Each structure stands twice: as structure tokens, then as C-alpha cells.
What does this fold into?
Amino acid sequence: MDDVSSSQATNQENFRPGVRIERSAHPTDLPAAEALGFGRCFSDHMFRAQHDENGWRDAAIVPRAPLVLDPAAAVLQYSQCVFEGLKAFWSSEGKVRVFRPEFHARRLGESAKRMCLPQVPVADFLRAVFALTRVDERFVPHADGTSLYLRPTLMGTEAFLGVRPSLAAEFFVIASPVGAYWQGGRRPLRIWIETDLVRAAPGGSGAAKFGGNYAASLLAAERAKAHGFDQVLWTDARAHTEIEEIGTMNVFVRIGDTVVTPALDGTILAGATRDCVLVLLREWGVRVEERRITVAEIEQAHRSGTLTEMFGTGTASIVAPIAELGLGAKEIVVGTREEGDLTRRLYDAIRGLQRGTLEDRYEWLVELPAPG
It folds into this structure.
């Protein structure tokens, strides 16, 4: 067995003494790039660590296997669970790099606070992600448009039916080689504006990457798909007049020469790709506004011919163009229904940064540390 510990941790909130590695005795065949899709194939190993009143323990990379949970575990009974999603890529120099891992580590910490789960220190989050990626490096696909998607998850595991924070928790990381997120590949999307169901309300859990948020979103998404749309555009809980997110993505609207995205007001998840887009747009001299934007403003821009582009952003889809919106019996066409120039430029720039074909001036890519 290997050990990736660099030093003995002294803080009880750190993995102690390091990360043990147990390699699978039954390695699986690598899937073909064209068969990947999103989240259907998995690597051979997973990271696991347990938390109790004494802190983190038993950190290990082990063969991927089903979890054993008590039926009364907090994650099963009360959905006490948060997660992250980030990607690893082969660079043009033949090195594996992880995109914005520290951003995701810190966001997991914020989500954990909201759900009364223990903190995973940033350094240990990185250690877990890097160790698993190193062990399963062969699962990082090489083909264009592919990557290794990493899913860190933190959950309450105590068997107790009283409603209070779990006294036991597990942090685990699994990995999935992925291709295109959207069925049929990347294309302009049709989006339904949801004015009945609610994704998040002020004071709720919308800003946390919390499993329950996603379960609650499924009905609206299924209704939209039944009417021929790809996803929903959520509106505010108070009056359903302001837009918030598209499914699991942040949303951007280009009206004339200005790009507008909803401000982070506590109901919207702070996306890593959202942050990348804001940095790039401002660097390119594009006027950007983070503020409330209403459905009525979008309709008016459509009527005046200034609604030139809309797109969603997220780790899985990167930058996804939007062709049209559905609102009751209305159809709101975005631009020419084709991907806009700015949308494509952003997609190409972020893909280039991830692949290492463009200079990473922002230090968003982190190369895997050397083994040992």
C-alpha cells in the first residue's frame, strides 16, 4: 500500500496521519471516448474519510464499491448532504491538471456550514482530489471535449431519527470520465421559464450545493422536457418576475452591448465557471452588470431586437448557448437562434485554458503534485 501523507497533521480537523492507498486488484477497461456521455462511466477507485467527535480519520483511496449506510443515517432521512463537481484535464504538454480546485474546496466549506456538516479543510480537500486523480490518472480521457469529472461529497452518516446535525460524517470523492453534458452534443438550447415551482427562496439553501436542491428541481425539469424544452429558467420565489438560474447553471443575458447576470443574493449558487466568465468579460472590456433582471426586461429586449445572446454556465457544460425561451404560449427567440459570437468566444477561451493551449494568467489550473 502507498501513502501520500507529506507530514503528520496536528489539527484534529485534518486527515490523520495521511491518505492510505489500496489499489484495485481488478482494473477495468477504459471506455471509448464516443461512449462516455456524462456521469455514466466511473474510475476504479474512490477516496473515503470518516469524521466523528475526534475529527477526521481513516482517509484512504480504496477500490470503488457501494457504501454501507444505516437505514436511519442522516443523509437518508434528512438529506444532510452537500457536494462539488470539478474537472481534470490532460494539458497540451502531457500533464494532468485540475481546474480551480481551491474554489471548489472553499465552496464545499460554505455549503457544509449551511447544512451543519463538518468542515473539510481546503488542504485536505485538495489532497483527496489530487490523490484520487493520480491513482486513476489513466481514466483522464485525451479526446477533445472530454475530461475526468470529480465528485467530492460530504454527508451525515449518524443513525439517529431526531432532527439535529449528525454527529458522524463521511467525505468521499468519486471520478467519472465524461464527454458532452447535453444529449446530442453541444447545441443551442430551448429553455422553459418556470413561473409556478420554486428552486430557492430568500433565507433558504439556494446558495449551497445541497443535494435536496437538485431533487426539488427534477419535477420542473421533467415538465419542461415533456414540452420539448431542454431545461427550466428559474424565477424568484416572491413574484416569479426575476430570473435566477437555468437548471443547474448560472445564466447570462446579453442586451445590446451589456452582459447581465443575476447577483449572488443568497438564492443563487456561486459558480466557478460564472466567476471565470466575469473575469474574462471584464478583461475583454465588455460591460458587465451583476443585478436583478426581470422576465419583462428580457421580453422588451426581444421586441426591440437587442436580445442578442443568452447562455448558461457550469462545470459540466462550461458555456451553453440558448436559442429560445418558452413562457406560457409565448416564444422568445434569442438573437438568430444560433450560438452568439461572445458565447462561442467564452467557451473557446475556457476550453483553451483548461487544455493548456491558452496561457493561464489566472492560475486556475493546478498540476497534480508528484507522487510520494
About this structure: The CA atoms of residues 303 and 332 lie 9 Å apart. The longest strand covers residues 147-156.
